[in-house]
Amino acid sequence: MIRDNIQRLRLIVKSVANRKLDALDLLQIDHIKIRTLFLQLRASKNQGRKIQLWRRIEKDFLAHSLAEETVFYPACMEFEKLKTLVIEGEEEHRLTKTLMRSIDSLSVESERWLPKIYLAMENIEHHVEREENVMFPLIRRYMDYLELQNLGDRIQRVKKGERAAA
Fold it and tell me: pTM for this one?
């Protein structure tokens, strides 16, 4: 699975070798990174490493969801056929963040800590599959390359903490 994710990253890099990354490229790269971190967490036998990976997953997910919620989703709401998908995405983010807070309130020694992380992983995986297989193909039809590049620039600024500049 990790090798599959590495291969997917290589394909994205190859496909954008002669152009700038657009919003969908950046979001897909985030998806692959988070999936890979989850796979590493699941495979790890070391509790300290699991904690470290969980913190990274949380940080990456929160940055990713902020970018989607403040830049990407508002742009998608302009298209009637995307509104329901955007609302579902926002709700999936909300549910995942609630679950993350619940995980953080637990001791890492709790018997519920790891199962809740796996549940968060399932929620995120469902969200990613829906975006990549349903939403992204529609967006490529509705937005041109320059619009997607502009959104990509804004997403990068948000993720770098320049929310006001987005």
Answer: 0.85
Residues in Cβ contact with 165 at an 8 Å cutoff, skipping those fewer than 6 apart: 157
Query: Tell me: the pLDDT tens digits for 30-81?
Result: 999 999 999 999 999 999 999 999 999 999 999 999 999 999 999 999 999 9
Sign of the CA dihedral 87, 89, 91, 93?
negative
User: 52-60 long-range contacts, Cβ below 8 Å, gap at least 24?
Assistant: 54/103, 54/117, 57/120, 58/100, 58/104, 60/30, 60/33, 60/34
Cβ–Cβ < 8 Å for 94, 66: no
Total domain count, the chain: 1
> What sign results for the dihedral spanned by CA atoms 89, 12, 63, 104?
positive
Full domain range(s) for residue 140: 2-165
Q: Residues 6 or more apart from 21 whose CB is under 8 A from it?
A: 29, 152
Q: What is the CB-side half-sphere exposure of residue 155 using CA atoms within 13 A?
A: 27
